[in-house]
Amino acid sequence: MFRYRLNALITLLLLFVLLQTTSGQAPNPDAGQVDSSRHILLVFSGSDWCLPCIKLEKQILSDSSFLGFAATHLQVIKVDFPQRKKLSGEQMKENETWAGHYNPEGAFPKLLLLNPDRSVRAILSWATENTTSFIGQIEQLLNTN
Question: Is-contact 39 113, C-beta < 8 A?
Fold first, then answer.
């Protein structure tokens, strides 16, 4: 039993690290660094000051079932605008580029589902969702032509 739990925990941690490594840094939308074959979940956040953003991260985005779903269905790009944490000038410029294209009003948190061609497929709601219903919302959108 202990060995099973340890293996499951290690697998989840590796998945989390992989997602953070591949999606934690938002590439410039004009640089062609985004995987053009996958849908994108674009998450605008103020990770260290926006209480709804912090709640979203804890309740849905870091949940193991969401991480597993996202790993096979989406490219998650977090566009973060923290107040206390310092971002590099390059990262800040990339984040501002994403925001200029997809969040000029500066809404936080804001979640967009983008098609592989980067056109907006949907603006997602999350406040009344749990992880299962949030994944269901995305699945329904992905299965709609």
Answer: yes
Rounded CA gap, 90 and 14, in Å? 27
CA 52 to chain CA mean position, Å? 14
The closest of 66, 11, 72, 64 to 43, measured between CA atoms, is 66
Question: Could you report the per-residue pLDDT of 1-40, keeping only the tens digit for each?
Answer: 545 444 444 444 334 433 333 343 334 444 445 678 899 9
The domain made up of 2-142 has a fold known as Glutaredoxin (3.40.30)
What predicted TM-score, i.e. pTM, was given to this entire model? 0.75
Report which secondary-structure segment, H or E, holds 29: none
CA nearest to 41, candidates 59, 6, 67:
67
Can you spell out the DSSP letters for 78-140? EEE--SSSPPPHHHHHHHHHHHHHH-TT--SSEEEEE-TTS-EEEEEP-TT--HHHHHHHHHH
Provide mean pLDDT across the span 72-97. 96
Neighbours of 40 (CB within 10 A): 23
CA distance 66 to 35: 19
